[in-house]
Design goal:
CATH class of the largest domain: Alpha Beta
Order of helices and strands: HHHHHEHEEHEEHHEE
Number of strands: 7
Helix content: 55-70%
CATH superfamily of the largest domain: Histidine kinase-like ATPase, C-terminal domain
CATH architecture of the largest domain: 2-Layer Sandwich
Strand content: 5-15%
CATH topology of the largest domain: Heat Shock Protein 90
């Protein structure tokens, strides 16, 4: 669906505005040329007035040619016939030349119309290119359309004003998430300290108090994990600090080694020296979230497979796991915050930010994220990131 709610037309070739302008220019020129050719034909179709000959005036008494020799009269009639034929030939040549000239000018009008339309639409093409380049990460850029103050410049100024408002809205949202997360850490730390002090008091504690304190401590850890996820998400959407060449294979190996869940873990590292340029902390969080998500949302005694492939331009990290069967719509929803494999925002384990953080970090690094449900259950997540040259001596391809 398009933004206006109208489904796009499929199977129809897209006609550019430049082609429509060119067709309009050429059509108007040809129509005016046809009208001009009709006017020329109308005026050229009249006969040439000549002095009356003997055939028209006769040879009776009072005729101007009375008494003229017969040879002279025949000569005059022949000249009249030749003059009429010459006039007809001249008319046909004039019409033929005009038609050929009209065709030549029609072809030339297409070229001139194409050039003129391109000149007129050049600012619009520049605005389209700049608007496509601008995203949530570079809303500070502006179109800055120059030239005369016309309708196209008004459109560019309007888009710049919209970008200014969007930039302010995005910045306010990110500041709110970051500030709220920071401010909530202090009371959480205070509550955690109070629970620890209660549990550390000398003397026996009632079992109910100890169980309740353990539950509170677990929930506090869960909220702390949620705040940490929100901070990471806001950081990934705001900036990309301290970029460096990071080997994804090592991060994947560390993430798998850190897991203690009873699942079968396999690393198929087909590009051990492949590196991507980015922030090491964010990329480590991306890999850890993918592995944690694959382990947590798994079946008992399940399996996790991590594959790494690379070519000269990109590095692909694929994480697959077993588990319950998901639909395509459910898989598409998993990158939204607080989604845990179902339509609701509650229930399940984890903060619901794991794949949302993966999507934000991937976008911040100029990569692509693809989620595909497996037919026999589980999920296949593929992250493709631009490859960066590594140290000398590293393998070129997998």
């Amino acid at each position: 669906m398009t933004d206006g709610g109208v489904p796009p037309v499929r199977g129809r070739r897209r006609r550019s505005v430049r082609w429509r302008f060119t067709s309009l220019y050429a059509g108007l020129f040809l129509a005016s040329g046809v009208v001009m050719l009709a006017v020329v034909a109308a005026f050229a179709g009249g006969s040439l007035d000549v002095a009356p000959g003997p055939e028209s005036s006769g040879t009776g008494p009072g005729s101007a040619w009375e008494g003229a020799p017969a040879a002279a009269l025949e000569r005059i009639a022949a000249l009249e016939h030749q003059l009429t034929a010459a006039q007809d030939r001249q008319t046909r040549q004039l019409l033929l030349g005009s038609a050929v000239g009209l065709l030549v000018m029609g072809a030339l009008s297409l070229l001139l119309g194409w050039y003129a339309a391109g000149r007129v639409l050049r600012p619009l093409s520049a605005m389209t290119t700049a608007t496509r380049r601008i995203s949530a990460d570079n809303l500070h850029e502006r179109l800055a359309v120059g030239g005369p103050h016309d309708e196209l410049r008004d459109l560019g100024d309007t888009i710049d004003e919209l970008l200014t408002r969007l930039e302010g809205s995005f910045a306010a949202q990110r500041r709110f998430v970051a500030d709220a997360s920071h401010e909530l850490r202090t009371p959480l730390a205070t509550m955690r300290a109070a629970v620890d002090v209660t549990l550390a008091k000398p003397g026996p504690l009632p079992d109910q108090t100890r169980v309740l304190a353990g539950r509170v401590r677990t929930e506090l850890d869960q909220v702390d994990s949620l705040l940490d996820g929100l901070l990471t998400l806001a950081r990934a959407q705001h900036e990309l600090p301290d970029p460096e060449a990071v080997p994804l294979g090592r991060l994947a190996a560390d993430a798998l080694a850190a897991q203690r869940q009873p699942v079968e873990r396999t690393l198929d590292d087909g590009a051990p020296e492949a590196r991507v340029r980015g922030n090491r902390t964010l990329l480590r969080r991306l890999v850890e979230n993918l592995v944690d998500n694959a382990v947590v949302h798994n079946e008992p005694g399940g399996w996790v497979l991590v594959r790494l492939r690379a070519d000269t331009a990109a590095v692909e990290l694929v994480v697959e796991n077993g588990g319950k069967v998901l639909s395509t719509d459910q898989a598409a929803e998993l990158t939204r915050p607080f989604r845990r494999g179902g339509p609701g925002r509650t229930g399940g384990t984890g903060s619901g930010l794991g794949l949302a953080i993966v999507a934000a970090v991937t976008e911040a690094h100029g990569g692509r994220l693809a989620l595909h449900p497996r037919e026999d259950g589980g999920l296949r997540v593929a992250v493709t990131l631009p490859r960066t040259p590594g140290p000398a001596g590293e393998g070129k391809t997998a």
